[in-house]
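Hi V.,

You were right to ask for the full record rather than a summary. Here it is.
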Amino acid sequence: MNQTAPKGPAAYFPSIEKKYGRPVAEWKEVIRASPLRKHMELVAWLKDEYSLGHGHANALVAHTLAEDAGK
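Predicted structure:
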């Protein structure tokens, strides 16, 4: 069985869902609904507003912004 583990920000997704009890898709909606657009502003906002850890917030923001940029 040759399963490839997720790389990059997606590697954090299982632990994010387990720790905070919300699916990643829901976090992406939260990020997209925010009036903020800059990476570090969004990270700081997630940390303040939802008590996410820095690494988890950073991974969610990086993945969402990359998706939105069509990468």
